[in-house]
Amino acid sequence: MSQRSRGRNRQVSESPEPIVVEEQGGDNESVIDLTCTVDEEYVDLTSLSQRSQSESSGVNDASFVILGSPVAELPAHRLRSGRGRHSNEDTPQEDTDEDDELPPGPVRVSQRDNSEPAFLVASPDATQQISCPVCLEDFKSIRKNHLKLNSTSCGHVFCQSCIESAVRLHRACPICRKNLTMKNIIVLHL
Amino acid sequence: MAGGLPRRIIKETQRLMQEPVPGINAIPDEQNARYFHVVVAGPEGSPYENGVFKLELFLPEEYPMSAPKVRFMTKIYHPNIDKVGRICLDILKDKWSPALQIRTVLLSIQALLSAPNPDDPLANDVAEQWKTNEAKAIDTARQWTRMYADSN
């Protein structure tokens, strides 16, 4: 009996497994790209002239007004993937960060800043008051060391090198201890 | 830069000097800037009141990615501090976070003196006494404070 049932189990489990694994495995990114046919949107972002389109179409436009000049520096492929996934559902995206969030799209960062403390980007004076709670360096020194500020998915800000070490060693946010991986870290282009 | 003192330690030391924590005194050793001579005043309302407790604090090479090493030099009767002064405190072990500082660690130790936790003991005999006869344990703690932590 037991042999038979084992055999059955094996048969049953073997056939769907490879399929499931294949589906989940390497296809995440491509699935995302394929399903997000948002060409228009990312074109909107990089070109000044079409900005009005994106403003009328989505919630995300405000961030762009503020990002302003840095837009030109942003690599287009990052914009595409970041933007594509965010165009329709901004808020839920932030909550499901841990799942498979890969592209740390600059767009999303600015959205986040925008939705709450817009002054982060809007006023250059405010950035001077930010310091990394780990190395205690202020924004100016962090920039001098050619580092960027990073934000965690839980919304805490550190310099790049400190949060990388902390996540590697403790896999948790130094402030709130929420579990983190490098996928939950977003570069802030301030 | 390998042997140099990290800027964070310099900053922390400066701030400790400029804005000292009430009831806590931490002074870096003249020979070793990673080693601090610490004095903590026994908190008011605790059996350690009026006592002055000496501790040593050492910042390991990996600090702040790993916790400072802290030890009581003054004998103390406390369920979470053993005979040789080792401290049972989560933030010094698995709950360490690089956003914590010398200042916050010492404040936590001061708070531990106000709130002994016999359910997570390091000194088993003391914890046992604390649970079976708290009044007597507190009395012993007072005695030890007078005997070993007298400020004079």
From TrEMBL, chain A:
GO terms for biological process: ubiquitin-dependent protein catabolic process. GO terms for molecular function: SUMO binding; SUMO-ubiquitin ligase activity; ubiquitin protein ligase activity; zinc ion binding. It holds the Pfam family zf-RING_2. Residues 12-23 have a biased composition (Low complexity). InterPro entries: SLX8, Znf_RING, Znf_RING/FYVE/PHD, Znf_RING_CS. Residues 91-102 have a biased composition (Acidic residues). Residues 1-35, 76-113 are annotated as: Disordered. GO terms for cellular component: SUMO-targeted ubiquitin ligase complex. Coiled coil: none annotated. It comes from the Eukaryota. Residues 132-177 form the RING-type domain. Keywords: Metal-binding, Zinc, Zinc-finger. PANTHER family: ELFLESS, ISOFORM B (PTHR47094), RING-TYPE DOMAIN-CONTAINING PROTEIN (PTHR47094:SF18). This is RING-type domain-containing protein. It comes from Dreissena polymorpha. The lineage of its organism: Eukaryota, Metazoa, Spiralia, Lophotrochozoa, Mollusca.
TrEMBL record, chain B:
Belongs to the ubiquitin-conjugating enzyme family. CDD domains: UBCc_UBE2N. InterPro entries: UBC, UBQ-conjugating_AS, UBQ-conjugating_enzyme/RWD. GO terms for molecular function: ATP binding; transferase activity. Residues 4-150 form the UBC core domain. Keywords: ATP-binding, Nucleotide-binding, Transferase, Ubl conjugation pathway. It comes from Dreissena polymorpha. It comes from the Eukaryota. Gene3D superfamilies: Ubiquitin Conjugating Enzyme. The active site is at residue 88. This is UBC core domain-containing protein. GO terms for biological process: protein ubiquitination.
